[in-house]
Amino acid sequence: MAAEDVAQTVRQISQQILAAGELMSGAPLALVGIRRRGEILAQRIAAAIYAQTGRNPDVGALDITMYRDDVVGNRSIIIPMGTEMNFRIDDRAVLLLDDVLHTGRSVRAALDALVDFGRPRFIRLAVLVDRGGREYPISADFVGRRLEIPDESRVRVSLKPIDSDDAVVVNSIAPTTAGDRL
């Protein structure tokens, strides 16, 4: 996906959210993006919702580093960036956003982290790309693009201002051999 495709997909997700209606009814709306690219998507979707409805949802960024189940082992040390939510989520409609849904582990960690901030009325999930391959029984309520790609491939999402451009690229990952390990 090139930059315009990403922008169009964000607009599509915003339209799906508005069409669903339940997020726009009654309960105050909060968009919470999983750090880093999920928070960019949350900001962009909030802007699209505001442009179409005049309703300005709260937007926050959720750091799931300490809730992940893969922070131990041979992975490099990840320094938490911190969660930025200047609102409570009690009795609110929460839209959780992430760039790519794959195994479901990041979303599981995000759900664990979210409940530490209160008890929302409900939580819905929106993702830019759903690539399949779940390890947890998690599915997105709002999906920009669905891709069926092998586990040996990786979906790389680039979003400004974190990256130099907006794009989604699928890369093949070469299988490692015993000689490749450090």
Helix/strand class: alpha/beta
N-to-C series of helices and strands: HEHEEHEEEE
How many strands, which pairing sense, and closed or not: the largest β-sheet?
Answer: 5 strands, parallel
Please report the distance between the alpha carbons of the first and last residues.
34 Å
What percent of the residues sit in helical stretches (DSSP H or I)? Answer: 25-40%
Number of helices: 3
Low-pLDDT residue intervals, each spanning 5 or more residues: 178-182
Q: How many separate domains? A: 1
Mean pLDDT: 87
Q: Give the overall silhouette.
A: globular
The CATH topology corresponds to Rossmann fold
CATH structural class: Alpha Beta
- How many beta-strand runs? 7
How large is the radius of gyration? Answer: 17 Å
Q: What fraction of the residues are assigned to beta strands by DSSP?
A: 25-35%
In spatial order, strands of the major sheet run: 2-1-3-4-5
The CATH architecture assignment turns out to be: 3-Layer(aba) Sandwich
